[in-house]
Amino acid sequence: MRRAAAVLSLLVACAGAGGSGASGASATATPTATYSAPPSTPALRAYAQGERGGETATGNANANSTANANANAAPTPDNSVRAERRPAPPAGVEARPSEPLSPPTTVQQRFPELVAAAEKAVGTRFRVPLPVQELDAAALRALAEAEVRSVPAASWAELGRVLAAVGALASRDDLTAAAVEVRAAQTVARLDAAGHALLLGPGALDAQRKLQPAASPVVLGMLVRALAAQSGAAPPPAPDGDDAREAALLLSEGDATLAVLRAGEAPVTSAALPGLMERFRASGQGGLEKVPPFVRELLVARFTDGALLADALDRSGGRALVTRALAAPPATSEGSLHPEKYLSGERPARLALPADDSILRSRGYARVAERTLGELAIRSWAGLWLGPQGGARAGAGWDGDRAAVYGKAGAPDVLLWAAASDVEADAENLQGALWAIEGRRAPARRSGDCRVYERGELADAVCRKGRVTGLVRDAPADVAVFLAGELASVKPEEAPPAPALPGARFVPASGGVVATSRGREEGRRYVHPELAYALTRPAAPPLRFVPGPTSTGSEVTPVILEPPEGGARLRVSVTPVEANGVELAARVSRGLASGLARGQMAPASQVRRADGRESWVSRFSGQGASGSVLVVAGDGRTYVLVATWSERTPQPTVDALAAAQRSLEVLPAGR
User: Fold this and answer.
1) How far apart are CA 370 and CA 382, in angstroms?
2) What are the distances in angstroms from CA 375 to CA 312, 331, 415, 482, 633?
3) Residue ranges of the alpha helices (H) in 291-374?
4) Residue whose C-alpha is closest to residue 536's, from 547, 521, 518, 519
5) Which residues fall within 8 angstroms of residue 235, CB to CB, at 6 or more apart?
6) Are 46 and 58 in contact (CB under 8 A)?
7) Pick from 305, 266, 300: nearest CA to 285
8) What is the pTM of this model?
9) Is the dihedral of CA 151, 156, 157, 158 positive or negative?
10) Distance between CA atoms of residues 46 and 79, nearest Å
11) Rounded CA separation 170/448 (Å)
12) Rounded to whole angstroms, how far apart are CA atoms 504 and 344?
């Protein structure tokens, strides 16, 4: 757990260094994420609560009382930036008299071992010495305020209003003030706004002015970030939560996290990294309790998903590729969460909201904000209501979005949001997530192809047309469905791919989320050489192959076979491990049956195949629907084919799905 504790110390102490907005307590309409910390994480919780080698994070009582007393006060000569030969103070920190101290004034002089470890981790050296300064709580607050003020107040207000309209933040939350609090709370170490100086806080040093043991991984992570800054890497100037900024921070913070995990005598391997990150996500993230749940999810992603991104780039092109990526980071959080998309140059579609908003303006509303949310924000927001996997499915396959907020004195803000997905299967997942979330706000009723959720004179509505989903919140009840339908009718404008990074060839991970990949159609056959299988659809009745949803877990569903009229489908999924076929078939069948009224399943039975591969089938049924689960053993992977149909599905279609299910061919790898 020592290694995991290092991750948490980096997370808690560095979260504000990247500029992470937070806000006050959430309103009752905003959900609270619930975590269950396993017994094996006491060290993580202890560190998060402030324990430093037998002392609390509040450390020296005198120093701490001074910090508390001056948290909102102007700097005084007694609470000064101290250094032997005093360098220029960070931007925003007023120069003040200070008492001289004996330690050197650069990290190269004070922490040579950590400097060597950082330079070894990234394969480069500091171009110039990195100044180090000691700041008290008042100076940290002054620096935090200056950093937040460097982004126009209007940008903070706009983003906060959009997030509140979506329901990710409470309407009373002040994103700007909260961002200051998060930054000022970092009491161990951080970088200045430009990344050109290391700032040590009250929690960094012991009574002998030596670096606390728990502070070492924090400082190491900061040195890695400083090396990137000296190479020109920097997140775009924008409010915390901005998609482009979060995309860049996922890489820079993740790179620092990975360097910490790989330093020392027992470096974390690529194979072990996904499991470690999952354990960390489930650990409770102690020390972040005062941060709103949505913002906490963004913070945690920077270090967990960020480390996975840095590892994927390192696997796919070595340190040279990571360095190039730091200089040209993903432009969207989708690229950071799905490295294969970033390396292929995939760009989101452009969405323009309907230009005619007279229906709202005629009722006294005016457009007050417009922004893009991005996959990470969607995942984090939906995950608070639906759990981590539900949130991941809602955000996966993101292909662009646009949100607008309309305000009116004395009325809640109206949200208009349109989101495009890569394929219809992804759009179905997003639609289902919105149905579940909106259903907790009000009962649903159908209105054509849409669902409306009325609350007196106001209503929410969800509509979907193909790959585009429209969401309206808190609109006048008589126009909510119309507005949502207009949003779902938006036509995405596809963007050309970005130039690929030189030397990049994506290498999938051996664990964690399986990268989404697609096969090809060859007449009536669907062939996937990478996953080594082929499927054949019968000549009649007509069935079609459609792309499956973007992967969010340890299996991938490249293709779905279905009739044009819907009502039935065959999902073909692959997991990159050799599973116990009889147990897997029974578990999947049992789960599907449990979702049906009066659902029941038959025990899994073995199926004899001409190729001799082990295969098991289990059937299930319930009110209104039935299906079967076929599991086939592959070479180093397992194929799971799930056929489902409604009670109104014609029998020839059911027979055709069953024939396609049995047609699975396991191919030689790479064929």
Assistant:
1) 20
2) 19, 12, 18, 26, 34
3) 293-327, 333-337, 339-344, 358-361
4) 521
5) 18, 19, 245, 248, 249, 252, 329
6) no
7) 300
8) 0.79
9) positive
10) 28
11) 32
12) 9
What are 417-447's pLDDT values in tens digits? 999 999 999 999 999 999 999 999 999 999 8
Minimum mean pLDDT range among 238-242, 441-445, 625-629, 652-656: 238-242
Q: How far apart are CA 197 and CA 190, in angstroms?
A: 9
One DSSP character per residue, 231-264 reads: TT----S--TT-HHHHHHHHHHHHHHHHHHHHSS
How many CB atoms sit inside 10 A of residue 241's CB? 29
| Residue 645, helix vs strand vs coil | strand
Query: Which tens digit of pLDDT belongs to each residue from 318-364?
Result: 999 999 999 999 999 999 999 999 998 999 999 999 999 999 999 99
Q: Who wins on pLDDT, 18 or 191? A: 191
Q: In the numeric block, which tokens belong to residue 436?
A: 């579940």
Q: Is the pLDDT score of 588 beyond 60?
A: yes
Residue 313's nearest CA partner among 340, 274, 347 is 340
Q: Is residue 541 reached through a cis peptide bond, with omega within 30 degrees of 0 on the bond before it?
A: yes
Q: How far apart are CA 554 and CA 569, in angstroms?
A: 21
- Amino acid occupying residue 512: G
Instruction: At 634, list the tokens.
Output: 């592959």
Measure CA 427 to chain center: 18
Per-residue pLDDT reduced to its tens digit, 482-510: 999 999 999 999 999 988 887 788 887 76
Closest CA to 360 of 487, 462, 488: 487
Question: In terms of residues, how long is the chain?
Answer: 671
pLDDT at 611 over 70: yes
pLDDT band at 537 (very low <50, low <70, confident <90, very high): very high
Separation of alpha carbons 184 and 521, rounded Å: 56
Copy the structure tokens of residue 313.
């780039």
